[in-house]
């Protein structure tokens, strides 16, 4: 295999590894929604109290914030890593 093909394979393998890490990071962050679904399965179909509704909305907002923070931080880390991979492996 030529050097050019080897470098291309290394470059894309590095980018795939960074992308996989990013998606795993988001997957771990999205597990914060698990407790919400667990609480909802316990409640029946009847009316819910205002306090419970507000608590659930706060939980959804916090879980969304966690995923948003993970996505933002992951983006800020992954884009420079991909650019470094393109720069170093030529």
TrEMBL record:
Residue intervals passing through the bilayer: 12-37, 66-86
Keywords: Membrane, Transmembrane, Transmembrane helix
Protein name: Uncharacterized protein
């Amino acid at each position: 295999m030529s050097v050019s093909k080897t470098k291309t394979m290394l470059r894309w393998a590095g980018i795939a590894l960074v992308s996989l890490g990013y998606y795993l990071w988001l997957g771990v962050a999205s597990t914060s929604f698990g407790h919400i679904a667990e609480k909802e399965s316990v409640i029946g179909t009847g009316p819910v109290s205002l306090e419970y509704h507000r608590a659930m909305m706060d939980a959804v907002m916090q879980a969304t914030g966690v995923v948003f923070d993970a996505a933002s931080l992951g983006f800020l880390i992954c884009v420079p890593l991909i650019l470094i991979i393109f720069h170093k492996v030529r």
